[in-house]
Amino acid sequence: MKIVVAYKWAPNPQDLEVRADGTVDEARGKPAVSEYDPVAFELARRLADETGGEVVGLTVGAAAIDTPLARKAALSRGLDRLVLVADDALAGADSTRLAAVLAAAVRAIGGVDLVLAGDSSVDVAEGQVPLTAAAQLGWLGLGRVTAVTPAAEGLSVERDTPAGVAVLAVRTPVVLAATADAVVPRVAGMKDILAAAKKPVEVLALAALDVPAPAVTLATLGTAKPSGGDRRAVLFDGSDPASAASQLVGALRSAGVL
Amino acid sequence: MDFTLTDEQELLLSSLDELLERECPESYIADLDLHHESATSFRKALHEAGFMSLGFPEEYGGMPCDAVTLVLLAERVCRQGLNNGFGLELLQAMDILEFGSEAQKQEILGLLANGRVPFALGFTEPGAGSDNSAMTTSAVHHDGLVTFNGTNTLITAALQSKYLLVMAKNPDTDDPRKAISMYLVPMDAPGVTTNRLEKILWYTQDSCEIFLDDVTLPEEECLVGVKGNGFKQLMRNFEMERLVIAATCLGQAQCAFDDAAAYAAQRVQFGQPIGNFQLTQLKLTDMAIKLENMRNFVYKTAWMLDRGLPLKSQGALCKRYCAMSGFEVADDALQIFGGVGVTVGARVSRLWRDLRGHRFGGGTDEIMVHIAGRQIVKDHS
Amino acid sequence: MNASNASQSWVVVADDPAVTGLVEVARTVADEVVAVVVGARPVADTVAAGVDRVVWLGEPGAVPLEAFAPQVAELVAAARPVAVVGAATPAGRALLGAVAARTQAPVLGGVRTVSVADGRVVVTHAVMGGIAERTVALEGGPAVLAVEAGAVPAGGATAPVAEVAGAPLDAATVTQVRPKVRAGVDLGAASVVVGVGRGLKAEADLGLIRGLAAAVHGEVACSRPLAEGVEWLPKESYIGISGQHVAPDLYVAVAISGQLQHMVGVRDAKVIVAVNNDKNAPVFGQCDYGVVGDLYQVVPALTAALGGSDD
Fold first, then answer.
1. Residue C5: predicted pLDDT
2. CB–CB of B63 and A191 under 8 A?
């Protein structure tokens, strides 16, 4: 079974500075494997070990995502090899564009049975890319996946729905996005970390990939700090809890919320 | 001079951070300390992530590792607040992997895999502490067997270990350097009795007296390496062991410092944080200086080891400085906390107790002077 | 350049009849709103109360909703609407993703406002997890938007429902559904919500929080670690960027540090109160009222001041 783990290399927006004009200063952000992606790595490794398959890591983005540390950070998570598309034309790319490039890369890798992804990325947190990528590939894409095991005609997949846990018989190829708690991923092991530098890495040129052109263009009219942030922050000293409580309740009653 | 970490070191540390968060939070350590229990589950998790095989030969599931990386990891685990949290069992196991028989190697590896301490070091005797040449434990070889007699005391972690690594003398050999051999003695062998010693520190590792009374074992099972080479074999890793102890002191001292500085920043007396007062700032400043010194000392020494440079007294100097300064940092930290620091729930008093032990554990402050002082005079004559 | 059908917006519905939020946005940019519904017939009928026309892809049976996404995308693309609006939920995003791939248009989430200016759809939306906002004008195709679903439309004049033969991908079958053990609470409907975070030391201490919630007649919610990490509360209780988004009259954040991944879920609350023992916690910069103190003393005091008692 050939499994691709699509992951993101990005900083936590919590660590970034937003200027007064709403533009984002990424200088202090330290990129890392996106917070929930290790779940996908873990599921992929377990599935590959069970079926005698191969795990290929895949990530796309601006040129800066390709550094020795970035490569090793991914390769130390149970990958057999890594594929990257790193091109500044992808800086700030939206989910549809990223999905198109991922899909083109999956086609270029060839013979892929399963693309596994995490719940949502640490920086955008929408959970959109894997689903759009499935559509770009012409495959079925399922989200909220909590378990995946090999089955007679492909895979048996469990996923969360409002009604409960649905069990599905799924034919490959397919894109699956796992929930953040589908499995507790192992920490990157000593051997994997020290052996990462020797694992194969392939960089695919964006220009050589068959990526459909975006049809809709976005013109940025303005940026701003998030609205709705002007809250008064009246603070009470809780070292006298009873007094603070009565003051707070009084204020809330005056404000009409109690 | 390039002080940056390699990518591999960064990744190892961040993986270790994750492991510590999951498997070794302060609540876990405090609980172990309260109940005088060993960090078995954490060590098992370390093993599962491969950290217990660092530096082991590849055929035993390990990967080569340099001294700098090892002390980086030891410092980090101890900075979490766990005394002797990482490194020593690794080094001890390496002695067996280097000199032991296949059967002995597999035994030790199996124990490590289960999070257990593979063996305790049985060297200290009632009459032989710093003066280890005064040891009297005897090992008589006869008909393929070895019979041990003697007493050990202040042995760490023997009650939780399967084996005791005994250094014993052949009474028939006159030359002390050729008389001592290294043996692995099962703690449950007939003739081995123990007496638990209660201490005021290092609660996660027990201490005891061990009495060897005509303990008889097959030579091929218990002898480690070459008969008569005991001392040489023991000395193989002793510089590294000193370094790991220094890193342990560094990590725990850093922990105490961070706790104290955070406390000083928020504890209000006389209308302001006590961190605003000069006497507090003086303590914090000098603590920071000591930590910086300890860090530079530990990493420079590790760097020397990695380059195969002769250490001479470097290891002794480093151990002495880190043990003494580490305790001073913890002592100032305890003072900054005041009464709060000695209540249950504040870990600074545990750090203070545990750091105190390293000033005599692994070689006393004074023996370090004995080693370094002689070397200094010798180098200048 | 593609000329879009300037008078029409499409709403894509994935088996959830709560669509008032989607319709509201759709109506902002077009006169006519068409809904394409994947799911059971009753969903199509309910949605018909809010829109002008419904296209229903038939009973899905044991076929997962996502398998219909390509067909939804084809129908939408053929209509060339000015906007396509779907719910910002995993199911909604599956349909929106297919539309996005078919039309090569971006999916915009975190939508704050939508309008039309100079023949272009103008959207103000949150970017980078909510730390900043951006206003963009779209050209060359539909505005594909992921928004808060809203409520179930009230009955009334209903639109015609046209059934179209479903043509899903033949890739998966649902063989079983194991019902949920713990029923979630509808946080979206609560006018008061009390959220608790990692500062709570033990699961047993939830009693304090429940006592406060009872005293304010509110529901209990939490930040992500309490639902997914230690699982002290069900997943439906967690408020955050990829969890619940709520807009109650009053949100009380207890022992929550104020990380943006959580606060994004309550930004539209009328009044936010924070209780935390760290005066430097980011939450104090995002609340209307705050108490700096130990929750184990402040929460019981608040509960008492409100006339309630602890569990």
1. 58
2. yes
